[in-house]
Amino acid sequence: MKYFLKQPYIRSLVLVSFLAFQLQILSQEKPRDMNSLKKHEVKIDAFDLAFLSTLDVSYERISNNNMSYGFSLFFNFKELEGYPEKQAITPFFRIYFFNKQDFGAKGFFVEIFSKFASGNNEYLNTLSGLDLEKATYFDVALGFSIGKKWVNKSGFTFETSIGGGRNLGLDENSPSFMFRGGFSLGYQF
């Protein structure tokens, strides 16, 4: 071993390799501190607002690398054919997958949620000659959805998701199935 280290080209090669290794270590990014990153996000469902005359706003709290939780508030301003909900609050929990960043809340996600909704639902009244009648309801639903979120460096977000769930049947006038999804624009701060 001493013979190889006495050769000038071997010593130079070892020195250059050592320096290159040190520079590589120094040039790697340091992990970002969780306390300095954006942990809050507000968003609005742009599709609902533009095409359905409804308002769906959400708040999401980013808890760690791959999880978040939050809630959505939904208001329906017009009576829409086949859309019985008038207002709803939806708490949710998300797990993000396939994220190669130091911090989550972007990429593919799976969401579980509960939905507390009220509205007007049509039902078939067999006593009055098979007429459709409307009845108000309040029910709780459990469900899941999948989606994907993109975040730019400024903190603006775009999200698309789709899912659904079943109402628990607390009210006999409630629909049995409910939908959750849309195209949302938001901002992380």
Characteristics of this structure?
55% strand, 8 strands, alpha+beta, eight-stranded antiparallel beta barrel, 189 residues, single chain
Commentary on this structure:
By secondary structure, this protein is α+β, with helices and mostly antiparallel strands. 17% of the residues lie in helices and 55% in strands. It has an eight-stranded antiparallel beta barrel. Strand 5 and strand 6 form a beta hairpin. The termini are far apart. About 3% of the residues have low confidence.
Outline the low-pLDDT stretches: 26-31
The main pleated sheet reads as: 8 strands, antiparallel, barrel
Mean pLDDT: 82
Ends apart, CA distance between termini? 58 Å
- Rg value: 27 Å
Layout of SSEs?
Layout: H1 2-6, H2 8-27, E1 40-45, H3 46-52, E2 54-64, E3 67-76, E4 85-97, E5 107-125, E6 131-151, E7 156-167, E8 177-188
Antiparallel strand pairs: 1-2, 1-8, 2-3, 3-4, 4-5, 5-6, 6-7, 7-8
Summarize the structure.
The chain is α+β, with helices and mostly antiparallel strands and 189 residues long.
